[in-house]
Structure to design on (88 residues):
């Protein structure tokens, strides 16, 4: 899975499963936790994530929503995606 950002031990990835209708989303990993997040509006779709990290991921998604949607469009067009700055 292509990594697009990393902050506070959280790894954000994005990929597209061709042939399936999907909502624009991204994936997050933190230790043994994994979850999928909707881009607009930012929300956890599935999986598990500690509350603190979930809040950080949602705040990051709020700040970078336009960049996330641009990456999603690039994936749909089979183009390379861009890195997105993490939280600092």
């Amino acid at each position: 899975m292509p990594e697009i950002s990393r902050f506070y031990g959280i790894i954000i990835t994005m990929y597209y499963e061709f042939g399936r209708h999907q909502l624009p989303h991204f994936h997050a990993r933190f230790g043994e936790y994994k979850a999928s997040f909707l881009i607009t509006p930012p929300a956890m779709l599935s999986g598990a994530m500690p509350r603190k990290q979930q809040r950080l991921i949602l705040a990051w998604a709020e700040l970078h929503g336009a960049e996330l949607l641009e990456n999603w469009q690039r994936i749909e067009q089979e183009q390379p995606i861009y890195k997105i700055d993490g939280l600092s």
